[in-house]
Q: What sequence folds into this?
């Protein structure tokens, strides 16, 4: 264990033993730790940004929660030195360090959690700005907007498909979330997301492009007719197979009936009579 602690002491500052965690505002987070040595003198959870302790554990099994975090710390039922920090706000974003002090080695970083608190993203709205129609094509410009950002994109459609100028578009908003607009089949999707939440709005281009409406109706009609033909073909085949099986079973049953009910002498006499008739 001492070798493990020495490795942590030298490697954590160099390599960054930090596990990134994103937490929704108002939710709780588990500050988890393993391998706390049995011969420790103190184990402390520290909020690095403010250099303040959350809770201190002592060798006799007792612990002390800092007055700043009274009512916000729960102890984990599964692990002795892991704690739950409740009701996180944006100001709680930062690195939380689990530090152990022993009589032989001194202060050692056992674990760090890099917590980022995010609020749920704001709703988005997808609006049609302009529509330009010709006899064979349609150009539609839409704007995907949220509280602090927006993206405008143009889509070109003919009677069979649509394409987005420049492909999928996205940008990082002022609140560090992602706003994106993209095309799925003939549906434009406007999405606003971060690591803890997501919201979207969508519009079918065929509602504003008459060319696509005509194509969609024609395509749907063909699909229905094709489906009905497949339905009738399947039932015809099924009925034919059933009739064949029924006919074979009837023939088999008749043969078995005559073989089981006619006396052998009757069979011989019947065969002789048939021969004389010939």
A:
């Amino acid at each position: 264990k001492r070798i493990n602690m020495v490795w942590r002491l030298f490697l954590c500052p160099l390599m960054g033993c930090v596990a990134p965690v994103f937490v929704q505002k108002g939710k709780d987070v588990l500050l988890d730790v393993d391998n706390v040595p049995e011969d420790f003198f103190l184990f402390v959870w520290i909020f690095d940004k403010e250099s303040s302790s959350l809770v201190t554990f002592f060798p006799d099994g007792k612990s002390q929660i800092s007055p700043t975090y009274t009512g916000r710390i729960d102890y984990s039922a599964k692990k002795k030195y892991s704690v739950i920090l409740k009701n996180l706000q944006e100001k709680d974003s930062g690195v939380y360090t689990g530090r152990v002090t022993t009589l032989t080695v001194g202060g050692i970083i056992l674990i760090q959690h890099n917590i980022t608190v995010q609020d749920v993203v704001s709703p988005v709205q997808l609006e049609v700005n302009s529509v330009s129609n010709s006899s064979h094509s349609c150009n539609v410009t839409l704007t995907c907007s949220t509280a602090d950002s927006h993206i405008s994109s143009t889509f070109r459609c003919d009677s069979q498909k649509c394409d987005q100028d420049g492909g999928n578009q996205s940008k990082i908003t002022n609140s560090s979330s992602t706003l994106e607009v993209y095309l799925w089949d003939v549906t434009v999707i406007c999405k606003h997301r971060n690591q803890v939440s997501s919201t979207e709005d969508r519009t079918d281009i065929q509602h504003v492009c008459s060319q696509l409406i005509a194509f969609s109706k024609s395509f749907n009609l063909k699909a229905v007719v094709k489906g009905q033909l497949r339905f009738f073909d399947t039932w015809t085949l099924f009925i034919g197979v059933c009739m064949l099986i029924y006919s074979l079973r009837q023939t088999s049953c008749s043969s078995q009936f005559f073989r089981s009910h006619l006396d052998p002498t009757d069979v011989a006499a019947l065969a002789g009579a048939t021969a004389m008739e010939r």
Observations:
- Residues 125-213 form one domain.
- The two ends are 108 Å apart (CA to CA).
- The chain has two domains: 2-118, 125-213.
- The helical segments are 2-15, 210-261, 264-277.
